Amino acid sequence: MIRLFKACEPSPQIVQDPPFGWTLPADVVWIDLLKPSRQEELVIEACLGFQVPTPEDMAEIEATSRLYRRNEALFITVDLLHHTDALLPETGPVTFILSHQPLVTVRYSEPRAFTLVSDRFDREPDLCAGPFRVLVHLLDAVIDRMADVLERISSEVEHVSDDIFVDPGRTRYAEAIKRLGAAQHASARIANSLAGIDRALTFILLEDELDSRPEARGHLLSMSRDIQSLQAHIGMIAQSVEFQLNAALGLINIEQSGIIKIFSVAAVAFMPPTLIASIYGMNFHHMPELGQMWGYPAALVAMVISAVLPLWYFKKKGWL
């Protein structure tokens, strides 16, 4: 699908599988290719004069394959979050192609930031005034969205911390560890995405054309500082998650030790009564106590005393 955004017009024009020979409408400043078909790619390539990267090209992890200039166009590929409302957000590559022609974005996922920017253009059409300005708003929205996701992850980690330390006796440790693992994995994906965006901002800042646009350079530098603050916050989340994981595992070991101690004390406490019962369960013919009226009560009393004395001793020593 091809979405065309025109300058200062609120709603995009949607085009699907245009025929060969199709021409790009005037005043288009942003071409958003969402899961484009091969025909759509070829038509856009014919209109703009450069090749659109394939999913295989976008999946490359080398810096030279993600940030490069080809003729007059900058090709920038970064991993962006999508499905951010899920417990574990996913990431997918998105390519931005910046040139003197309309901004081109190529994506096979649906990051929430693109929807937010599109909605903002509906309310404020002036924001869609040029390709570079659209790129800045997209990256800004991506960073803001990641900040929102980090806030949610941080809140989740705090809730798990309350579950672990406020009432550890009722904590479901398996669920807590699962939630902490998901938070750590999600924050790692965000950190990777932010690192890619920061490299992209540095790559854009090296362009000589920004020398004549100090306000744009200042905006990009401000976004880079925002990324650094978010990366520091991710480091704090990672430390908190690691501490809580260690604490959870320690509390699990304490509970297991308590259970094992109870079984050990029970085994020791019942050893003397078991010994007495075993002795009087032997089948010897000459056992005088067995013929006495007091034999059975005496055996019961002996077993009770032999069980109570170890328990009293353990209690006195503080082992129970």
**Radius of gyration (Å):** 35 Å
Q: Give the percentage of residues in beta strands.
A: 5-15%
Q: Which stretches of 5+ consecutive residues score pLDDT under 50?
A: none
| Proper CATH architecture of the largest domain | 2-Layer Sandwich
Helical content stands at 55-70%
Q: Tell me about the largest β-sheet.
A: 7 strands, mixed
CATH superfamily of the largest domain: CorA soluble domain-like
| Spatial strand order of the main sheet | 2-1-3-7-6-5-4
- Main CATH class of the largest domain: Alpha Beta
Number of domain modules: 2
According to CATH, the fold-level topology of the largest domain is Beta Polymerase, domain 2
Number of helices: 8
Q: Give the rounded overall mean pLDDT.
A: 83
Globally, the shape reads: rod-shaped
Compute the separation of the termini in Å.
70 Å
Topology, please?
Layout: E1 2-6, E2 13-15, E3 28-34, H1 38-48, H2 55-58, H3 63-66, E4 67-70, E5 73-82, E6 90-98, E7 103-107, H4 112-123, H5 131-165, H6 173-205, H7 214-279, H8 295-317
Parallel strand pairs: 3-7
Antiparallel strand pairs: 1-2, 1-3, 4-5, 5-6, 6-7
Helix pairs in contact: 4-5, 5-6, 5-7, 6-7, 7-8
Can you walk me through this structure?
With 320 residues, this protein is an alpha+beta fold. It has 2 domains: 2-253, Beta Polymerase, domain 2 (2-Layer Sandwich), CATH 3.30.460; 259-317, Methane Monooxygenase Hydroxylase, Chain G, domain 1 (Up-down Bundle). It has 8 helices and 7 strands, in the order βββαααββββααααα. Strands 2-1-3-7-6-5-4 form a 7-stranded mixed beta sheet. The protein is rod-shaped and about 115 Å long. The chain starts with a strand and ends with a helix. The mean pLDDT is 83.
